[in-house]
Amino acid sequence: MIFKKLMALLTAMIFAAVPIGAFAAEYSGLSPENEPWYRIVARDRFAVDADVTDGMISVSVNGKNLSFLTAPYVDGGEIMLPAKEFFEKLGFYIGWQDRTRDTDWCGAYFGDVNGAPACIIPDYDVAYYDDIPLELGKKTVGTDNEVFVPLYYFQFINGLDVKMKGKAEISFDFKKLAVEEKEEEEEQAVDIDEVLKDYEGEKLLDFDKAIETGAYYTGGEIRAEVVTPDGGRFDKAFEIENLSRPTVYYNNQFAFSSQKPINVGDVCVFSMWVRYTEAVDESGFATTEICIEEEGTWKKIYFSPDETVSAEWRKLEYVFSSNIACDPGNVGIKIRVGYNYQTIEVAEVTVTNYGRQINPADLGLDTNKEIVKPESYRGQEDDALWREEALRRIEKYRKSPIKVKVQDENGNPVKDAKVDLNMTRSEFIFGSEMGSHTWSKGDKRQLYLNGYKNMLNSFVYGTEFKPTTTEASMRSAIYMTNFARDNNLYIRGH
Questions:
Q1: pTM of the entire structure?
Q2: pLDDT by 10-residue block (mean), the chain, 494 residues
Q3: Under 8 Å CB-to-CB from 468, ≥6 apart: which residues?
Q4: Rounded to an integer, what distance in angstroms lies between the CA atom of residue 146 and that of residue 190?
Q5: Phi first, then psi: what are they for 303, rounded to 5°?
Q6: Rounded Cα gap, residues 274 and 18, in angstroms
Q7: d(CA 60, CA 165)
Q8: Per-position b or e across 92-105, b if 16+ CB within 10 A of its CB
């Protein structure tokens, strides 16, 4: 009886005091500090003395003193540098974006800085480098066409070493990363028209026929109409005007429906002429992306990189091999435009299917290219920045001391008591998206669900809890919620 009361009291104290996952490593016998990936680098915050004034700050790079249009200043003992102007002096440009993709904040300065993306949000205490969130300890400060960032941030930039001399003399040693010269264009330069001149393909999409039959549609906030372009080069074109900056760029798109079937392994060529008639982006260009996918499942057959569109007509041409089979009308050929306010014209949009009569390699397409294995990814290095920052956050947020008092029913200490700690569920969430379209498929269903039960402790819904689809998929959402409850899983919205 005393033992039961003792264990109940002990259990209540432990679970009320700390996240149980915080001490799992210690009691499993593992020593993370001895692992090669355990690396926390001490980065100096370079706090300055109370008597340091803004005018005392000097900045040099590789021994050369820098002058700024918007001068650095001291705020609460920390030096704030104008990031945009500083990076420009190093040869890099970060430009303002009103809203970048898949984000909840209203805008940021964004650009490539010495081989990795930098993203700085004004009035925010986190800035990003190489897609890693870096806690600054002080908020950034946005002004007209500039953003000030604590000196601490610059220690994370590739090739940039920071030293402090005296009270406020900042010295940077900078080495620009060598950019490998790409020979791919020369190696893969293929005259597609020359290769295809002796072959006859079937048009998966015929531009003129699409205009005739109305085999096209719009998505999101765009305006699209058939026009006669100026210049006389083309008789007809679609003028596509993007009317908003959506949360994700692919919400605004113009699309054609396929007119013929496509089979697995079919070699196809997409071509399109494009130019802009209006673009407000500070780059001076418009932007588009081509995506070819199965309607309804959104399985990607092909999608292009972001393409820069100028005021001059430019031909885009891509070769791809289909990874799925689809009936006529089930393939969407999509021109995505939701990047910024812009108007583009597209002409002679065509997808030609050559079946299997052509060797894909003759068109520069390597269908046998080895798929990147899951264990091979950017950032797997032992000294990857994300590991360092993750460990720093773990030390700060996910660990807490454990104080255990073992007492008998009269409140007296119990000598030589044995205490066992058993983790029932990690408080740290790790999981994946759960899609009912995957787990509902026959013999794969149980294998899929067992993966969640045995290897993960959470999932997010797929489209089942998105407002536009919830009503049609409520049964799946209920099933997934019950599955989480029955198997002690955390769940989150999409």
A1: 0.54
A2: 40 38 40 74 84 93 94 93 96 80 65 93 94 93 93 95 91 86 51 84 93 92 95 94 90 94 92 94 89 89 90 92 91 94 96 88 62 58 87 84 87 89 80 79 80 91 69 75 92 81
A3: none
A4: 44
A5: -145, 145
A6: 59
A7: 11
A8: bebebbebeeeeee
CA gyration radius, the chain: 29
Task: Provide CB contacts within 8 A for 302, sequence distance 6+.
Answer: 268, 270, 290, 291, 292, 318, 320
In sequence order, the 6+-apart residues with CB closer than 8 A to the CB of 326 are 258, 261, 262, 294
Q: How far apart are CA 9 and CA 482, in angstroms?
A: 32
Q: Of 348, 277, 272, which Cα lies nearest the Cα of 310?
A: 277
DSSP assignment letter at 56: G
pLDDT value of residue 197: 84
The answer to whether 243 touches 338, Cβ cutoff 8 Å, is no
Length of the chain: 494
End-to-end CA distance of the chain: 48
Helix (H) or strand (E) holding 195: helix 192-196
Q: Which two tokens stand for residue 90?
A: 């190093």
Tokens 């370079």 found at? 46
Q: Which amino acid is at 459?
A: F
Residue 164: name the closest of 45, 74, 42, 64 by CA: 45
Task: Specify the DSSP element, H or E, that contains 344.
Answer: strand 342-353
How do beta strands 141-143 and 331-336 pair?
Answer: unpaired
The residue among 357, 273, 354 whose CA lies nearest residue 320 is 354
| Residue written as token pair 């999509």 | 334
Cβ neighbours around 289 below 10 Å, total:
18
How do beta strands 331-336 and 169-174 pair? unpaired
What is the full DSSP assignment across 278-324?
EE-STTS-EEEEEEEEETTT--EEEEPPPEEE-SS-EEEEEEEE-SS
Query: In the numeric block, which tokens belong to residue 490?
Result: 């955390």
The string of DSSP letters for 238-287 reads EEEEE----SSGGGSEEEEE-SS-B-TT-EEEEEEEEEEEEE-STTS-EE
Name the token pair of 49. Answer: 């003395």
d(CA 199, CA 201): 6
Is residue 105 within 8 Å of 124, Cβ to Cβ?
A: yes
Maximum separation of any 2 CA atoms in the chain, in Å: 97
Which are the contacts of 409, defined by CB distance < 8 A and separation ≥ 6?
Answer: 2, 5, 6
Residue where the block lists tokens 């070699």: 267
